[in-house]
Amino acid sequence: MQAPLDTWFEREILAHEGALVRYLTRIWPNRDEVHDLRQEIYIRVYEAAAKSRPHAAKSFLFTTARNLLADRIRRERIVSIEAVGDLEVLDVLIDEVSPERWLGARQELKRVAQAFDRLSPKCRRVLWMRRVEQLTQKEVASVLRVNEKTVEKHLAKGVRLIADYLFGSKSTSEATKTAAGEAQSERERGQHQD
Question: Does the domain spanning 111-187 belong to CATH 1.10.10.10?
Answer without folding.
Answer: yes
